[in-house]
Design a protein that fits this description.
Blueprint: E1 5-8, E2 11-14, H1 30-42, E3 47-49, H2 58-67, E4 75-80, H3 87-101, E5 106-111, H4 119-131, E6 135-141, H5 145-153, E7 163-166, H6 178-184, E8 189-192, H7 209-217, H8 222-231, E9 236-238, H9 245-253, H10 261-270
Parallel strand pairs: 3-4, 4-5, 5-6, 6-7, 7-8, 8-9
Antiparallel strand pairs: 1-2
Helix pairs in contact: 1-2, 1-9, 3-4, 7-8
Bound molecules: NADPH dihydro-nicotinamide-adenine-dinucleotide phosphate.
NADPH dihydro-nicotinamide-adenine-dinucleotide phosphate binds next to helix 9.
C-alpha cells in the first residue's frame, strides 16, 4: 500500500501532519507531548503545525524540544496573530516564534485569521521575512472565498501557499465554493479539526453507524476513517493533534487507508455537503 501524499510548497509531503493546539498548557503533560510529536515524526507525520497563540508560545516550546537535532526532517508551520500581521510587529512575532522553536527558519508562516491589517501590509511583511530567510513560504488561515479573492488582487498575494481551515466529515461547507476555488488556484487546503476534536465539535460523529461500519470494513478506527476521508480530497491535507501515543500511531497508519467508492458514497449520504453557501466554520 502507498501512503497518501500531497504536493505542498513545491515538495511532496505525507498528507497527514501533526497539530499542537492545547499542547504546552500543563507542565505535567510536557514529556508526553514531546514524545508524541517525536513518535509522529518518526512515523512519517513530518509536518508540524503550531502558533504563537497556543499556550501563549508554550506549544512552540514543546515543538522546539521535539524537533531538536532533527530540524531538517520536519516541515515546520507557525502562525502569527492578526494584530501582529504587519511591519515590524510581524518581524518581532516571527523572531519570538523562532526563538521558542529553537530554529532559524520556518517552512511556512500563516496569518492565523484576518484582522485589521490590510492584506497588502501582511503580504509585504511576509515577503520581507522570506527575503531575510526567516520563512520559506507564507500562507493564510480562516480566510473565506471573498478574502481569498481579495488576496489575489494584492501584489504578491498569489504566492500564498495554503489556506488552513476547519474541515471534517460533519463540517463540509468549504466544499461548496472555497475548496473548488483553492483547487483551481492550486492552493492546498490544510484541514484543521479533522477529527472534529475527537467528536466534541459534533455529537454522535464517532458513534455514527455508517462511519463505524466503514471503519470495521477496514479493521480501522473511526478516527482513521475520518482522516482518510479528509485526505482523499484533491489538494487537501489534515493536521490532527494527538498527545497520546496510540493516537499518533493510528493517525500515521491512516495514511495508508484508502476508502472505496461505495464507502465514500455511504459517508457522503450520511453527512451531506451543503447545497448553498454557508459561513466558514471556525473554532
Ligand atoms: P482535532 O480534530 O485534531 O482533535 C484533537 C483531539 O482528537 C485530541 O483530543 C486528541 O486526543 C484526539 N485524537 C487524536 N487522534 C485520535 C485518534 N486516532 N483517535 C481518537 N482521538 C484522537 O482538533 P484540533 O483542534 O487539535 O485541530 C488540529 C490542529 O489544527 C490543532 O492542534 C492546531 O494545530 C490546528 N488548528 C488550527 C486552527 C486555526 O484557526 N488555524 C484552529 C484549530 C486547530 P489526544 O491529544 O489525547 O491524543
Amino acid at each position: 500500500m502507498t501512503d497518501t501524499s500531497i504536493m505542498f510548497c513545491g515538495q511532496r509531503l505525507p498528507a497527514i501532519g501533526q497539530g499542537t493546539w492545547y499542547m504546552g498548557e500543563h507542565a505535567s503533560a510536557r514529556r508526553q507531548e514531546v514524545e508524541a510529536l517525536k513518535a509522529g515524526i518518526s512515523q512519517g507525520l513530518t509536518l508540524i503545525d503550531t502558533a504563537e497563540m497556543y499556550a501563549d508560545g508554550g506549544a512552540e516550546t514543546i515543538v522546539g524540544e521535539a524537533i531538536r537535532g532533527q530540524r531538517d526532517n520536519v516541515f515546520l508551520v507557525s502562525k502569527v496573530y492578526p494584530w501582529n500581521a504587519g511591519g515590524q510587529k510581524m518581524a518581532a512575532a516571527c523572531e519570538a516564534s523562532l526563538q521558542r522553536l529553537g530554529t532559524d527558519y520556518l517552512d511556512l508562516y500563516l496569518l492565523h485569521w484576518r484582522g485589521s491589517f490590510a492584506l497588502k501590509e501582511t503580504v509585504e511583511a511576509m515577503q520581507a521575512l522570506v527575503a531575510e530567510g526567516k520563512i520559506r513560504h507564507w500562507g493564510v488561515s480562516n480566510l473565506d472565498i471573498d478574502d481569498m479573492q481579495a488576496l489575489w488582487q494584492v501584489e504578491g498575494g498569489k504566492a500564498c501557499a495554503t489556506n488552513q481551515v476547519l474541515y471534517h466529515l460533519a463540517s463540509r461547507g468549504i466544499e461548496y465554493d472555497l475548496m473548488p476555488w483553492c483547487q483551481s488556484h492550486e492552493v492546498p487546503v490544510m484541514a484543521y479539526c479533522p477529527l472534529a476534536q475527537a467528536g466534541r465539535l459534533r455529537d454522535g460523529l464517532f458513534a455514527h453507524p455508517d462511519v463505524q461500519a466503514v471503519a470495521s470494513n477496514h479493521r480501522a478506527t473511526v478516527a482513521q476513517v475520518l482522516l482518510a476521508w479528509v485526505i482523499h480530497h484533491n489538494g487537501v491535507m489534515a493536521i490532527p493533534k494527538a498527545a497520546t501515543m496510540a493516537h499518533v500511531k493510528e493517525n500515521a497508519e491512516a495514511l495508508a487507508l484508502i476508502l472505496t467508492a461505495e464507502e465514500l458514497q455511504r459517508l457522503d449520504k450520511a453527512f451531506r455537503a451543503p447545497g448553498k453557501k454557508v459561513a466558514l466554520d471556525v473554532v
